[in-house]
Amino acid sequence: MNETIIDIQDLKTYFFTDEGTVKAVDGVxxxxxxxxxxxxxxxxxxxxxxxxxxxxxxxxxxGKIIGGKIIFNGxxxxxxxNEKIRRIRGKEISMIFQDPTASLNPVFDIEDQLxxxxxxxxxxxxxxxxxxxxxxxxxxxxxxxxIRLSNxxxxxxxxxxxxxMIAMALLCQPKLLIADEPTTSLDVTIQAQILELIKELKxxxxxxxxxxxxxxxxxxxxxxxxxxxxxGKIVEYSNTLTLFxxxxxxxxxxxxxxxxxxxxxxxxxxxxxxxxxxxYNPPPGCRFHPRCKHATxxxxxxxxxxxxxxxxxxxxxxxxxxxxDDPI
Length: 328
Description:
By secondary structure, the protein is α/β, with parallel strands linked by helices. The chain is 33% helix and 24% strand. The chain contains 12 helices and 12 strands. Helix 4 (110-121) crosses helix 5 (126-139) and helix 5 packs across helix 7 (158-170). The longest helix is centred in the middle third of the chain and has 18 residues, at 188-205.
């Protein structure tokens, strides 16, 4: 058995607003093994990024983690003081944010921002920092690294900014790397380069990775395990190959069937009927039931737990065995 590096148990992160309580993450359970990549996939607004921010203890106001555990290397991150979390954040757990333009400080040059990470987390003398930064920029594929260190963020392209964010995340060789939509703002050619770079650097540094995306193509290429998230909850969890070959939950099936196929003719794309529910007032029972043609009174009444249907394959649907051949 591989060792678990992070174990998220019944995590609940809510946002308390004037309009009501947003249950962004509502009872999420996830496990990630060392040196593996876990994909977290789902539509925009389902709570994926909030899971990542909860791990980092960076949930913005008015959000608050109200329950659960986040066990990292055997210790609960939610019980640690702010000072201890700051020592872990950036060193043992790093995050690549989805918008590098918003993540880099426009008034400091690149060297200042990268140097700060090394100063905070490594016992390195000041003259030794510059060569470390140059080496890391070369590793992430930045040419003219000496010049780029003196640049400000506005002088860099989108792809270069994302490479800088990757360099910043990997400077301290973290045990866990969280990549939150790392290619969202990039064109498809640069996306492919960045994903290949992340994959290679993860291998070099033997890091575990949580990859958050809505792109199932990216999931299929980079992940070992995949969790499908809908309206604040995990609805299916499996190794990635099984998920693509034998999806069980109606929502997972609908996502996969909405992707254009090059090996078959389609007159029109399949879509998922209805709308994503409001997390201010989510529907009772299974949150997908308003969009599911198989829904019964039980689905509308009872909140289904994740149930293991095969070893390592869990699904939150009481009808899974009845609808396997008629998923949507």
